[in-house]
Amino acid sequence: MSEREHTPIPLGERAVEIAILSLVNEAGIGKSVSPADVALALGPDWRAKLSAVKRAAIRLAKAGQIDILRKGKPVPVDDARGVIRLSLPHAATAPSSTEI
C-alpha cells in the first residue's frame, strides 16, 4: 500500500487539493498559479493557509496530478523549496502520437 493509503487526509486538506486542481485547470496548459493564489481562493487569512497549500501541492505532485515549478520548469518534489508555482503536468502539454 502507498503512504497515501495509510495516512487519511483531513477534509480541510482535501478541500485544498480540490482548490489547487480547480485553479491549475482553470489556468490551463502552459500556465501556472502560485500557492498564494490558491490560499487567497480559500478565503480570508490566506497566509495561515499557505502551509496547507504546500502540503497538498506536494501530495498532488507525488500523485502526478500537478507539477511543481521553479523558474518555469518542473522540479522533483524533494526540491520544491522557495518560490514555486503549480501547473498541470508538463506531460499533458506534449502532443500525443496521434497529433503529430
Strands, helices and their partners?
Blueprint: H1 3-6, H2 11-27, E1 32-33, H3 35-41, H4 46-62, E2 67-70, E3 73-74, E4 85-87
Antiparallel strand pairs: 1-4, 2-3, 2-4
Helix pairs in contact: 2-3, 2-4, 3-4
How would you characterize this protein structure?
- By secondary structure, this protein is α+β, with helices and mostly antiparallel strands.
- It has a single domain, classed as Orthogonal Bundle (Arc Repressor Mutant, subunit A).
- The protein is 45% helix and 11% strand.
- Strands 1-4-2-3 form a 4-stranded antiparallel beta sheet.
- Strand 2 and strand 3 form a beta hairpin.
- Helix 2 packs across helix 3, helix 2 packs across helix 4 and helix 3 packs across helix 4.
- It is globular, with a radius of gyration of 14 Å.
- The N terminus and C terminus are likely disordered.
List its traits.
4-stranded antiparallel β-sheet, 45% helix, disordered C terminus, disordered N terminus, alpha+beta, 100 residues, Arc Repressor Mutant, subunit A, globular, 4 strands
Structure summarized in a few sentences:
The protein has 100 residues and is of the alpha+beta class. It contains four helices and four strands; from the N terminus they run H-H-E-H-H-E-E-E.
